[in-house]
From TrEMBL:
<dbReference type="InterPro" id="IPR036101">
    <property type="entry name" value="CarD-like/TRCF_RID_sf"/>
</dbReference>
<protein>
    <submittedName>
        <fullName>Transcriptional regulator, CarD family</fullName>
    </submittedName>
</protein>
<dbReference type="Pfam" id="PF21095">
    <property type="entry name" value="CarD_C"/>
</dbReference>
<dbReference type="Pfam" id="PF02559">
    <property type="entry name" value="CarD_TRCF_RID"/>
</dbReference>
<feature type="domain" description="CarD-like/TRCF RNAP-interacting">
    <location>
        <begin position="38"/>
        <end position="148"/>
    </location>
</feature>
<dbReference type="GO" id="GO:0009303">
    <property type="term" value="P:rRNA transcription"/>
</dbReference>
<dbReference type="InterPro" id="IPR003711">
    <property type="entry name" value="CarD-like/TRCF_RID"/>
</dbReference>
<dbReference type="InterPro" id="IPR042215">
    <property type="entry name" value="CarD-like_C"/>
</dbReference>
<dbReference type="InterPro" id="IPR048792">
    <property type="entry name" value="CarD_C"/>
</dbReference>
<dbReference type="InterPro" id="IPR052531">
    <property type="entry name" value="CarD-like_regulator"/>
</dbReference>
Amino acid sequence: MNLELRRLDGADQGREARIDFTVESDGSLVQSTADALGFRKNEFVVYPGHGVGQITAIEVQTVAGASLEFFVIHFAKSKMKVRAPTQKAASIGIRKLCSPAAIAQVRRTLGQSAPRSRTNWAKLTKEYEAKIKSGEIIALAEVVRDLQRRSATAEQSYSERQLYATALDRLSAEVALVECITEEKAISGLESLLRNAAGKAA
């Protein structure tokens, strides 16, 4: 449970000092890191390595005598829950959903020509995996674009198809939430952009 304390004294009359706390199981109060970071219960976030999830709870647990606050993040597709310390959210890379401006950049990225690479597939695989795990939406768009272009020139291997599917799934999930559309519609729109770009390049 979150509490909001407001303090007014002689010097601060007319100005409110807001302090947010989380109530621990024993009744003690712990200042909320989650609130300071701007994350709220029920908010959708991006967790690198897992994709889009929803914060279903913000809990405080005692670990080795210290009170620690955790995000409980639920991933609907994989039916998985992750507990992440709120104090490590930045270092983990947990972020808010991107802006509409970033979605516009995604579309521009998908419409660009994929760079030609002489790198062998093993090295490319590591690069694509790193981009997917980063959780950055433009990096995901680059993976989708590059692998779609590869499929137009040669038959895709199983690993290529898996990487493409993972990147497209995470990209479309975020686009759908930002634009308030279904994932099916998001996928259709993204793949249409890819087909149009491929047609122009042919």
